[in-house]
Specification:
With about 170 residues, the chain is an all-alpha fold. About 80% of the residues lie in helices and about 0% in strands. It binds fe (ii) ion (2 copies).
Length: about 170
């Protein structure tokens, strides 16, 4: 199935396709986070990634609930965007020795992931409401709130790092 397959005809098809996209992405993030936890040197960053790994596993479960409510099979569809974000992060992180620089790169990569998730969930919530699926929208909203909170925490960690360096 192509990225914009002709199987997508109605809003409902687009909603399901985008659910499959973020389902794939969340599963890739579950696979990528253990490596980021291992590489992070700031204990607060390490702990933040650890906590978000738990949350991300729950995001996968929530998506499975949404698929079930909507009466479609839970399955992923390739998402080159998240693959690219993760691949780029691995490339950059692999080249850094300095601890602070490495943590800064990990924070930046993680924020790119969170923003990708935020755009997808924001869209899905709007479409779910449009399709009369407020039940799905409220489940998706719980995840969006956690993605936003994670993004804010990462911003705080980045600012703390900058302040420490400046001191
Ligand atoms: Fe997520
Ligand atoms: Fe996330």
């Amino acid at each position: 199935m192509g990225l914009f397959s002709k199987d997508i005809k109605k809003m409902d098809d687009l909603f399901v396709h985008t659910l499959q996209d973020i389902y794939y992405a969340e599963n890739q993030i579950v696979k990528a986070l253990p490596d980021m936890i291992a590489k992070a040197t700031d204990p607060a960053l390490k702990q933040g990634f650890q906590q978000h790994l738990g949350e991300t596993k729950n995001h996968v479960k929530r998506l499975e609930q949404v698929f079930a409510l909507h009466g479609v099979k839970a399955e992923g569809v390739d998402c080159p965007a998240i693959d690219g974000i993760i691949e780029e992060a691995n490339d950059i992180v692999g080249e850094i020795d300095d601890k602070n620089v490495l943590d800064a790169a990990l924070i930046a990569a993680a924020q790119a992931v969170e923003h990708y998730e935020m755009t997808r969930y924001g869209t899905l919530i709007g479409w779910a409401k449009q399709l009369g699926r407020s039940d799905c929208a409220s489940i998706l909203q719980q995840t969006l709130d956690e993605e936003k909170a994670t993004d804010s925490k990462l911003t705080q960690l980045a600012e703390r790092q900058v302040n420490r360096k400046a001191a």
